[in-house]
């Protein structure tokens, strides 16, 4: 086998020996004096010099000293001297490399690291026979070269098949001793032509696994390099959800890959950083071993050893939802997904076809696990799809768009998203504009009360409601400072409280002051809030594609007392190996599904059932634009109602064809909604808008959600009630006897209540089940 271009005599000589370092050991031993490698535990008894740099190179003969790189890679003392001695030919080359290395790197430079960085041959996998071959060290192993590489014909008339039949170098096998191989590595390798280089420019190159000698990297100018506006592979200072530090392992990674802690860290970073950036650059394509390997531009046998770790990392990052998430199409052959330990007799049954159930189903199916989804309704989607609405959008808000799987799915399906600006002009329900100063003052006061509450919570063990806490702090502030608030300022305070009630999904009377924001210290998604402008149904349909979903299948009982689990839905009965329960909390609380044995009490007693409803309105003209020119939302400070929670914020959700607004009803106002017809609610809303905008007209269409009374739903999202404790969300995700698993918005403590949390809870449970069924290496 030879490389593509015509080999020089010198290169050909190098090549013929580099391929079979020890294969001639026996005959050498018989004929001439050999020196084994002196490194403890190195098995090479008669090494061969891969460098062939000096004319005096010993080749496969005797040298006074071998320099060890790995168990199968050594260079001789003559080649060492060639670069080390100032009077030798290689000295200047080495010195200019060293200058570059010290300028851009932090790690030690030596002849050994020079050899690894510049002289070791490359190893490449043949795309036909999948054997590994070494190629000339001068070869440009670009992605294009790697994608098309096949064993090259050595003899003039040798066919491709014959070339592929040539045995693989025996050292390749050594690298497959995954845990043994690295103990022989004496010098770290660093990546060239790194795809992630532009995004880690603030780091010293070798600290993130990139070779300091790679001049292609030095060209990147200062300034922000964005992978994609909505994707962020790396976290730099503060933790960010689904992003990782480019120069170290996260605690979670350390748990799964402890062997990479310390001296092998760079290898981990090379693989993981490459994978993350590949995903962020193109969320429509699955990241696979082949794709990753075309970007692993490393010399030496360790490149082969790394393929096994690439597989492991791909699986890990996929299971955790860092990559290959959402609706990216699964390629036919995904080698990193390990098959099940034994054939699955019964499917995993998922109860509930909302976003949580479907994300679990999609993920498990991609991982090769058989699933069946049982959905009570006549269509999938749960709370993510307003069943009776004909509006082209359901107006879902996503707080923090970067890396958010919801945004990823919209991008995968080309569904538009609308960035919400920073400003939200405030008007009163009688049309008065709230001036900036008053707005800022009351916002400051409100946030100060939240901060004080946080401080108090550190010392207080007794819980109380957020409402009691606000009332107390507000009164105390007025008493102690002597500052009074006028009527408008008090209305503004109510406006802020109302927004919090919308976020919590409950009147503040019921929300825990101690734990309402239990996720505050957990990594969150960054980037601006966005509104998903398309139809969530399209996303859910794609998630469900190819999955066995039974609609109109309302589960009434789950018996997990035996080895198999029996799931009954009316007169039908199904057998499952494991079950994921993803129904709304209200359904669990109502006891609509009878579990045998009964579920632990905490599954139904800790969290509260929250209520929020939305109103969508379609108009002939965008009458609000006159007063709300640059923003895509505006606040309405209610002064006329005796309760909070009615139409506080309006979002402009217009598309190219239609003018639309959405708004919400929350807190105590839900009671009012219950007593009114949709038309009466729309009338109240229009009344409000007419007072604010003189040209406001009656909508051409409107939709009022009524999730509180929707069959099989009965709620909006869950919240932490007074005295529920900090672990209320965490308790919900605990499995029962490794048979019954739980997903859904109420089970995700990091992103509770949301579509995002619901989606990620499905991914989380899929991982648990996959690990239980597969012996993941
Ligand atoms: C008005 C409103 C506004 C919202 N706004 C936002 C927002 O802006 N941003 C955001 O991120 N989130 C928002 N949410 C929350 C979001 O919609 C939910 O968190 C998410 O949809 C919950 O998904 P899930 O899969 O956990 O549950 P669900 O979607 O409720 O899915 C559960 C499924 O289980 C089925 N089921 C019930 N009982 C049975 C049974 N016995 N057998 C079989 N199937 C059963 C149900 O029919 C349902 O399809 C909002 C919710 C509401 C109501």
Automatic annotation (TrEMBL):
Keywords assigned by UniProt, alphabetized: FAD, Flavoprotein, Metal-binding, Oxidoreductase, Zinc, Zinc-finger
Binding site residues for substrate: 664
Chain positions recorded as FAD binding sites: 375-376, 555
Stretch forming the signal peptide: none
Domain SWIRM, chain residue ranges per copy: 235-334
Pfam families found in the cross-reference section: Amino_oxidase, SWIRM, zf-CW
Keyword field contains Lyase: no
EC number, as in UniProt: 1.4.3.-
Iron listed as a keyword: no
Annotated family: Belongs to the flavin monoamine oxidase family.
Name listed for the protein in its UniProt record: Amine oxidase
Upper lineage: Eukaryota, Metazoa, Spiralia, Lophotrochozoa, Mollusca
């Amino acid at each position: 086998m030879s490389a593509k271009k015509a080999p020089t005599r010198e290169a050909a000589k190098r090549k013929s020996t580099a391929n079979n370092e020890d294969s001639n050991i026996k005959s050498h031993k018989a004929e001439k004096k050999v020196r084994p490698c002196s490194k403890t535990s190195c098995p090479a008894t008669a090494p061969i010099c891969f460098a062939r740099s000096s004319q005096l190179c010993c080749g496969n003969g005797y040298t006074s000293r071998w320099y060890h790189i790995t168990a199968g890679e050594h260079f001789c003392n003559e080649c060492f001297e060639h670069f080390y001695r100032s009077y030798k030919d290689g000295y200047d080359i080495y010195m200019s490399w060293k200058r570059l290395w010290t300028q851009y790197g932090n790690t030690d430079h030596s002849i050994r690291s020079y050899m690894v960085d510049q002289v070791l041959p490359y190893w490449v996998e043949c795309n036909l026979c999948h054997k590994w071959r070494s190629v000339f060290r001068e070869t440009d192993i670009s992605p294009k070269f790697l994608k098309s590489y096949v064993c090259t014909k050595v003899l003039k008339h040798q066919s491709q098949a014959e070339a592929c039949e040539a045995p693989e170098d025996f050292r390749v096998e050594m690298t497959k001793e995954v845990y043994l191989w690295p103990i022989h590595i004496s010098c770290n390798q660093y990546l060239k032509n790194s795809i992630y280089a532009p995004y880690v420019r603030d780091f010293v190159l070798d600290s993130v696994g990139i070779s300091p000698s790679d001049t292609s990297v030095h060209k990147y100018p200062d300034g922000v390099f964005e992978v994609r506006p909505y994707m962020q592979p790396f976290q730099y200072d503060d933790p960010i959800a689904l992003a990782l530090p480019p120069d170290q392992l996260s605690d979670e990674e350390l748990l799964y890959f402890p062997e990479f802690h310390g001296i092998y860290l760079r290898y981990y970073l090379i693989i993981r950083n490459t994978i993350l950036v590949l995903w962020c650059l193109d969320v429509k394509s699955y990241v696979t071993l082949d794709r990753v390997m075309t970007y692993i531009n490393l010399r030496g046998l360790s490149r082969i050893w790394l393929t096994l770790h690439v597989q492991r990392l791909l699986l890990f990052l996929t299971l955790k939802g860092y990559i290959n998430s959402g609706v990216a199409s699964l390629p036919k052959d995904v080698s990193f997904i390990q098959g099940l330990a034994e054939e699955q007799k019964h499917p995993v049954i998922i109860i509930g076809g909302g976003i949580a159930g479907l994300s679990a189903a999609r993920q498990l199916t991609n991982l090769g696990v058989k699933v069946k989804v049982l959905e009570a309704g006549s269509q999938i989607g749960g709370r993510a799809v307003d069943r009776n609405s004909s509006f082209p959008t359901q107006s879902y808000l996503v707080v923090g768009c970067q890396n958010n799987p919801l945004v990823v799915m919209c991008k995968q399906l080309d569904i538009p998203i609308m960035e919400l600006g920073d400003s939200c002009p405030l008007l009163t329900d009688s049309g008065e504009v709230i001036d900036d100063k008053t707005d800022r003052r009351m916002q400051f006061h409100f946030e100060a009360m939240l901060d004080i509450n946080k401080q108090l919570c550190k010392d207080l063990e007794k819980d109380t409601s957020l409402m009691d806490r606000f009332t107390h702090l507000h009164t105390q502030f007025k008493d102690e400072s002597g500052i009074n608030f006028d009527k408008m300022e008090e209305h503004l305070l109510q406006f802020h409280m109302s927004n919090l009630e919308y976020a919590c999904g409950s009147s503040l009377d019921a929300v825990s002051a101690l734990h309402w924001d239990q996720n505050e210290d957990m990594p969150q998604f960054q980037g601006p809030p966005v509104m998903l402008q398309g139809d969530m149904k399209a996303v859910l349909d794609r998630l469900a594609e190819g999955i066995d979903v039974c609609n109109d299948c309302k589960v009434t009982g789950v018996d997990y007392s035996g080895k198999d689990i029996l799931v009954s839905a009316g007169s039908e009965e199904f057998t499952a190996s494991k079950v994921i329960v993803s129904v709304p909390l209200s359904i669990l609380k109502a006891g609509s599904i009878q579990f045998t044995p009964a579920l632990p009490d905490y599954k139904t007693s800790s969290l509260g059932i929250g209520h929020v409803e939305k109103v969508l309105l379609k108009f002939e003209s965008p009458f609000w634009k006159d007063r709300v020119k640059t923003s895509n939302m505006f606040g309405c400070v209610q002064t006329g109602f005796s309760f909070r929670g009615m139409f506080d914020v309006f979002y402009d959700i217009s598309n190219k064809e239609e003018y639309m607004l959405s708004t919400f009803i929350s807190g105590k106002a839900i009671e009012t909604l219950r007593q009114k017809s949709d038309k009466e609610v729309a009338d109240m809303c229009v009344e409000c808008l007419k007072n604010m905008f003189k040209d406001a007209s009656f909508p051409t269409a409107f939709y009022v959600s009524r999730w509180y009374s929707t069959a099989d739903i009965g709620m909006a999202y869950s919240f932490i009630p007074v005295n529920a404790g900090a672990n209320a969300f965490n308790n919900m995700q605990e499995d029962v006897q490794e048979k019954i698993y739980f997903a859904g918005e109420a089970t995700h403590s990091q992103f509770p209540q949301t579509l995002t949390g619901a989606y990620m809870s499905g991914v989380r449970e899929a991982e648990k089940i996959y690990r239980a069924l597969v012996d993941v290496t």
